UniProtKB/TrEMBL annotation:
The encoding gene: C11orf54
Keywords: Hydrolase, Metal-binding, Nucleus, Zinc
Domain of life, per lineage: Eukaryota
Primary localization class, coarse: nucleus
Quaternary organization: Monomer.
Protein name, as recorded: Chromosome 11 open reading frame 54
Annotated organism of origin: Erpetoichthys calabaricus (Rope fish)
SUPFAM superfamilies xref list: AF0104/ALDC/Ptd012-like
């Protein structure tokens, strides 16, 4: 497994507060960005296996969309304990957005990874969710991964944030009433892209506390026909409007320094059976976001596809 490593520009949390406060005001009527102690993420609604998102944060882009389309390469499976070693942090807590392994599930599905990888003293704790579509009634199905599966694999592609899972200082973002066209994550990324010459990456978790959001879920069957255009991909994916509260895990990088990255990727779960790949809220008037983020110190590009394209990167 080939891995490329890049040191990222890491602004101070105070500086990021000022930059994001100013930038997000262009997209939301009310914005408050501040440095706070990370809330205890073992508590509801997060119920993560670790207390916080602090401790040597890093991001990794694993595989890529070219392994999913035009045709799925189902042998592209990545064990998260191996990934944790590749990113030089065995025992890391990992969150983000990925595809579930069809070898484990027997079907294709979205994965909402929340994995505390193993170390010398502790076994893997997999708190991930997966979401799929019931093709009989076209409804969203969200499940706790460890209820049915015992591995900690992802497949095809993954955008992941990893850290030691410690408590500590984080950037808190409160934003309500969207006035711009960008999602919260895109607005954050565009702000960082405008401000910084070098790539700046952030990862973390946010709650859509009020309103609804547009998501997609990949269907349980991979396409047998090659998906050659964005329209082909859109016709294959299943779209849903889902309701708050939604707990979203996000990874973003301000710009791609030539590593064939997906520059933002967010998956969400809920406690009411909905979850998947987040695009944007559909209720700009009433939406309320509350998030906790940190800038990543390093970016690791794992198993970059040799043949690439820009289809299906939204
Ligand atoms: Zn996704």
């Amino acid at each position: 497994m080939a891995t490329e490593k890049l040191a990222l520009h890491v602004p101070s949390l105070e500086e990021l507060c000022t930059v994001l406060q100013n930038g997000l005001q262009e997209s939301f009527a009310s914005v408050q960005v501040s440095v706070v102690e990370c809330p205890d993420l073992t508590q509801h609604p997060f119920s993560f296996p670790v207390k916080g998102i602090c401790g040597h944060p890093r991001i990794t882009d694993v595989g890529g969309v070219p392994y999913l389309i035009p045709l799925a390469q189902i042998d592209k499976v990545y064990n998260m304990n191996t990934v944790a070693k590749e990113i030089e942090m065995p025992g890391a807590f990992i969150l983000g957005a990925a595809a579930a392994s069809s070898k484990s599930l027997g079907i294709n599905a979205e994965l909402i990874p929340l994995i505390w990888t193993e170390n010398k003293d502790r076994c893997t704790v997999n708190s991930s969710y997966y979401s799929t579509v019931n093709m009989k009634d076209q409804t969203c199905v969200l499940g706790k991964y460890s209820d049915k599966f015992s591995d900690c694999d992802i497949a095809l592609l993954g955008n992941l944030y990893a850290c030691q899972g410690n408590p500590g200082k984080v950037v808190q973002i409160m934003a309500t009433k969207r006035t711009g066209e960008y999602s919260l994550v895109t607005a954050m990324r565009k702000t960082l892209e405008k401000q910084y010459e070098k790539p700046v990456a952030m990862g973390g978790t946010f709650i859509i506390q009020k309103g609804k959001a547009k998501i997609h879920i990949m269907p349980p069957e991979f396409s047998v026909c090659p998906l050659n255009t964005d329209d082909d991909v859109n016709n294959w994916l299943k779209y849903f409007e889902v309701s708050a509260p939604l707990i979203c895990q996000s990874v973003l990088v301000s710009k791609d320094p030539g590593l064939d990255l997906r520059v933002e990727h967010t998956h969400c779960f809920s406690h009411h059976g909905e979850g998947g790949h987040y695009y944007i809220d559909t209720t700009p008037e009433s939406v309320e976001y509350l998030g906790y983020f940190l800038p990543a110190e390093f970016l690791y590009r794992i198993d970059r596809p040799k043949e690439t394209h820009q289809i299906g990167r939204e």
